[in-house]
Design goal:
The chain is of the alpha+beta class. The chain contains 3 helices and 11 strands, in the order E-E-E-H-E-E-H-H-E-E-E-E-E-E. Strand 6 and strand 7 form a beta hairpin.
C-alpha cells in the first residue's frame, strides 16, 4: 500500500495561494515540473494537518486560500466568522479607511498619511514614515496638494482588492 502525505504548500516562492497538497513521497521542494514551497511538515491525514497547523476547514471567501487560526485571540474567531485568511482580513479592514482623508492609493500602493512630525527641513523626523521625507500628494479630482513628511506604506494592493482600492491620488513635484 502506497503511503500518502499531506502538507501546506505554495506553488511559488512569492507566496501565492497556500493549499493542502497530497503527495506519495516525502515532500521535495522541486518535483521536476513544479516548485512546491513546503510551509508545513508532512502529515498522514488532512485532519491531522488541519489540527496540528490550526487550519480552518473552510477556504478564504476572497482568495480561496487557507485560513490559519494560529493567532492571538480574538483574531481566530474573527477569521472564522468572516471566512477570511489573515491577509484578506487585513485588506478587507482597509476598505472603510480608504474612503477617509488619511489613505491614498498611488500606482497600486496603499499609503496612510499621518500627522507631520517636526520641521520637515530638519533631521528630527527619524521616527516618521519614510524617514521623514517630504511627499507632495494630489488626490484625483482635487487641486489641493497635501504635503506630508510622515507617510506610511501599507504595501501593494493585492489583485483581488484592486477593484475596491483603486488609485485615488498621485505624487507631484
Amino acid at each position: 500500500m502506497e503511503s500518502k502525505f499531506y502538507l501546506v504548500s505554495c506553488k511559488d516562492k512569492e507566496g501565492g495561494v497556500e493549499q493542502i497538497i497530497e503527495t506519495s513521497e516525502r515532500p521535495q521542494h522541486y518535483d521536476g515540473t513544479e516548485f512546491y514551497f513546503s510551509i508545513s511538515p508532512a502529515y498522514e491525514s488532512v485532519e491531522e494537518l488541519r489540527e496540528k497547523c490550526h487550519i480552518h476547514d473552510k477556504k478564504c471567501k476572497e482568495c480561496g486560500g487557507l485560513i490559519k487560526l494560529r493567532w492571538v485571540d480574538p483574531l481566530p474567531k474573527q477569521l472564522k466568522e468572516e471566512c477570511l485568511c489573515h491577509s484578506c482580513h487585513i485588506w478587507s479592514s482597509r476598505i472603510p479607511l480608504y474612503k477617509g482623508k488619511d489613505v491614498v492609493v498611488v500606482e497600486g500602493m496603499y499609503y496612510t498619511i499621518s500627522k507631520n512630525i517636526g520641521n520637515p527641513n530638519r533631521v528630527n523626523t527619524m521616527f516618521a514614515g519614510h524617514g521623514g521625507r517630504l511627499f507632495k500628494i494630489k488626490r484625483f479630482g482635487s487641486e489641493e496638494i497635501i504635503e506630508c513628511n510622515n507617510l506610511w506604506c501599507g504595501g501593494d494592493v493585492p489583485e483581488i482588492f484592486k477593484d475596491r482600492l483603486k488609485d485615488n491620488a498621485e505624487f507631484v513635484k
